[in-house]
Amino acid sequence: VWMLAVLRLLAGVGIGGEWSMAGTFVAEEWPEERRKMGAGLMHTGYYFGFFIAAIANYYIGNHFGWRAMFVFGGIPALLVAFIRYGVHEPEVWKNKLDRVEREWGARRSFFYLFSPEYRRRTVLNATYVLVSIIGLWAGSVYVPASITFL
User: In 3D, which of 2, 7, 12 has the Cα closest to residue 140?
Assistant: First the structure.
């Protein structure tokens, strides 16, 4: 059980990291009039992945166990690695990054969130997001398993 928990945590961290990067890529690369469609496809892909995982679990998980499902789940990670290899930083971002590095404004603005003026608000909002994500994952992961026992 501990191995499953650790692997699940690592998978969640990886998904979270790639999810934020994918949103950034959609916002940067899709034309402005089609960004909503791109964001919709990206978010729909997440639930499409749930559907594919359920089908894969029926065939792979039943025959080979949950460890084989983690191997199967690694296939999209390899696809992401392949895609990310071909992605280059846009020139607009490179120019902006050079300017930000000179000014150190981004670092100051991040630490400003934890200044006495904004600390309480930052901690409360981070807690709200954490609780909502825990609720989302509890519903999407544990409810299907518990329904089978009804």
Answer: 12
